[in-house]
Amino acid sequence: MNNHEKINQLLPFYNTQQLDQKQMQEVQTHLKTCSTCQQDLEFWQTINQSIQVENTTSTPSLSPEIFTQISAKIYQRPTIQEKFNRFSQILKTQFQLIRKEIWPASFLVLLIGFVITVMFEFEPFFYAIAPLVSAASISVLYNRQNDPAFELVLSTPVSQLQILLIRLFIVFSYNSILVFLFSASLSLIYSTKVFSPLLFEWLAPMTFLSILGMTLSVILNSENAIFISYSVWLSKYIFHIDEIKDLSTGLYKASQFFWNSPQLIFVVSAVLFIILLIYIKQDPGKNISTTKPLTF
Amino acid sequence: MVEIALPIMVNEQIEDKKLIKQIAKGNEQAFEMLYQRHSKKLFGYAFHILKNKQTAEDVLQETFLTIWQKANTYRGEGRVVAWLFGITHNLALKAYNQKSTESIPETYPTTQNIENQITTQILAEHNKHLLNQAMQQLTVEHRTILQLVFYEKMSMNEVSQICQIPVGTVKSRLNYAKQVLKGVITREGITMEEIHE
Predict the structure, then answer these.
(1) ipTM surpasses cut 0.90
(2) What's the pLDDT tens digit per position in A226-285?
(3) Segment B44-85, tens digit of pLDDT
């Protein structure tokens, strides 16, 4: 871009004196020798005057009772109906903003897991797949760089925390329903007795890995969250290899104890969840940039 | 002129930042003070986008509810007024889009019938009025930028921040607005002097 074009783009702001001193001087110097920019400046002056006149004559006066109405809304406790409506509205908005590929991807991976389980009659394969699907999809819920949700955070009384929890709720519910249905199908193929163990086999680790993935994605990023969550889950199986088991019997026992205690897994999940809440609550605006443009 | 205005502007900025800090702590007086300071400007801006007093007042209410609830997220970067305009801008455009999907008012001609508008309406208007009419031919995104630059006296970075678009887009939208408005003026054979008269 040459100097003329650069200066020409500054003319509206020169006209309103919204340039720094150096830029003002640059424009002034250029204007002395450039008739095109002189004409454009005259054009912008006309536009400026026209806007001033239009605004002064056409803007109605603001009703005096508006502040009272705002105050009433601030101190008025919302009714259950209003709370429900607001929740539904956020739910709907967030459902549209969640990455679309999550839905078919989770379904396909679980379907593959289901088919392999049936073909090879090897149920543990499905147990291993289910929590991973959930952890992966929840880890990509939060995109700290370009998240359209942040626009919502900026313009409406919705916090980053609320948005995050609602997304967690939507995706975790979706994954749970999917795994529940596949578990039910597996139990129909084998026997109804398989259903309860199946359910408990995946529920605790799925909850744990989902919350771990979400926490890490908020603190670090989605890629690291998925990698660490997968590694943690892999640790459950890696100790079954005799050589590794022999290397560290203590770690093997701890891993076995952890993964075989659903109650402990739920407690650790709850602790992680509290850490996540505190982290976001302490610095709600941390990742919201008002100066950086959003891309969709 | 600049030398006199600058200290006042700096004082206003400091005061606004103090008010926002107080509002974040739940100070109602600070909230009312901020309202008294900026409500008219924000309402004017919302009205300029929406051309409807009731909707603009609704947007203003939503804006101040948002300010009350989100004052703790203001990071102190840039002028407070730009942050306030950013909130109003988002809410007003949201209301504008909702309104547009419901019905297109007669006062908002679509781009398809620009030619008809110019020949049937604008030719009959006074020259100054013609320019205002021509501005209505611009999209809401272009008009809001003209409003922010010339009426609200925002800097280039502030316009970029308020509209959540890159600085380059601010420049290109201004350039586009210039071309459209100049095109109308040229087509109608009107000189700048005639408009000034």
Answers:
(1) no
(2) 888 888 887 777 777 777 777 777 777 888 888 888 888 889 989 988 888 888 766 544
(3) 999 989 989 999 999 999 999 999 888 888 877 788 999 999
- Residue A278's identity, in one-letter code, is I
Of all residues in chain B, the one with the smallest CA distance to A63 is: B57
pTM for this predicted structure: 0.56
* DSSP letter string, B29-68: HHHHHHHHHHHHHHHHHHHHHH--HHHHHHHHHHHHHHHH
Q: According to the 3-state scheme, what is the secondary structure of A26-76?
A: HHHHHHHHCHHHHHHHHHHHHHHHHHHHHHHHHCCCCCCCHHHHHHHHHHC
Rounded to the nearest angstrom, the minimum Cα separation between A80 and chain B is 19
Contact A202, A178 (CB under 8 A): no
**Alpha-carbon span A238 to B48, nearest angstrom:** 65
Q: Are B85 and B48 in contact (CB under 8 A)?
A: no
Cβ neighbourhood burial of B148 (10 Å; 0-12, 13-18, 19+): buried
By residue count, chain B amounts to 197
B112 min Cα distance to partner chain A (Å): 24
* Residue in A40, A63, A70 nearest the CB of B65: A70
**Residue B137 backbone phi and psi in degrees, to 5:** -75, -20
